[in-house]
Write a structure and sequence with these properties.
By secondary structure, this protein is of the alpha+beta class. It is built from 13 helices and five strands. The longest helix is centred in the middle third of the chain and has 43 residues, at 212-254. It starts with 12 loop residues before the first helix and ends with a strand. The model is unreliable at 1-13 (pLDDT under 50).
Length: 433
Amino acid sequence: MQPQLAVPAAPPVPSRFRSRLLVESGYALTGFPVALVAFVLVVSLFAVGIGTFILGVGVLVLLGAVYLSRGFAFVERRRIGAVLGVEVPPVVYRRAGRKSRKRLLVPLADGQTWLDLGHVVVGLPLAIISWAFTFTWWVGALGGTLYFAYDWALPHQPQNEELHELLGLEDTTTTRILFNTAIGLVFLVTLPLVVRVVARIQASVAYTMLAGVGAMRARIAGLEEDRAQARAQTVAATSAEATALRKLERDIHDGPQQRLVRLAMDLGRAQHQLASDPNAAAATVAEALAQTRETLDELRALSRGIAPPILADRGLAAALAALAGRSNVPVDLETVEVGRLDPALENAAYFVVAEALTNVSKHSGATECIVWLKLTAGAVTITVADNGTGGAHLSKGHGLAGLADRVQAAGGTLRVDSPPGAGTTITAELPVT
């Protein structure tokens, strides 16, 4: 019986609840002093910089205000991530070239800089409101629920007689404790909701002003990267198709077409020999039949390279086994059962192994070859290794260039490790969709 691994239990809900309440309360309570210091320093420097701008030194003072606001913005970005539960993207500010004459003015022309300065102004009233609500609710919750512990130390004078008469209560110690405890329980029950609302409002405004542009830029960069990758795959698919068509045309021209031309000549010669030399005509016809069989074999081989029937009928593992069996170099095949995959993926994987084994047979001088096929998380990995002379690469004009285009068109990657004299290892990773 296999031993069972101990799985750590998830933290209880109350623990996560308390942790979140403490994080949001800490953010709201510390936000006010931070915002106050930022407002006093940055606004003061900014005002001095504006007042002395015409003297020239004001530019340096403004830059001091800018970089100080960036520092407070950096601190705020680190704080809001825990409150909102998101990863705050990094912000990239505009930079000037080393030889730019307006290098000092570039920070003032950066949009994110003015958002940082704006947050210093907007953040203070938000922080005051957030701090006031959080502090009031914590004091009300703690002071009310713990009132019984310090009631004896407070001076008590007849007061709130109208309220007690309205509620029909007598001003006794028990009544006083129950009344204040009830108020404390109201604050305690509503504390998480109030703190969460004010903290998230403050953090959301900060995120919009301090990280919204960065998030949008990151999203645009991701879309541009996806578009560039899609274009590269399209170009690779077009190149792979053109390479495959040229190869097919060359193979047909060098193989079946030449045999068909010879077959036509043999049949013509046999036709002229029928009347004068029937035995020679029969020998010519027999030779023509042999040429026909060889032509059919070559056509079958070409068709297997385009769309092998065994791949469509029995899947990738069986098709690779057939390839290994036809190879001129002994192949040790190690595969796992991957089931039926997307037809385009199976064709790309089959093409990788077929082209790699062809290069092994024709160019490597290898005496043995190993093919691995394994299925990992979200990808099919194919490795073809031989003990040949090495020196293979993906440069244009070589056989592996078309193989790289075919793999890239399928959204995968191809690596070739082929040091001279140490064999060749080709590894292709194709994503499983």
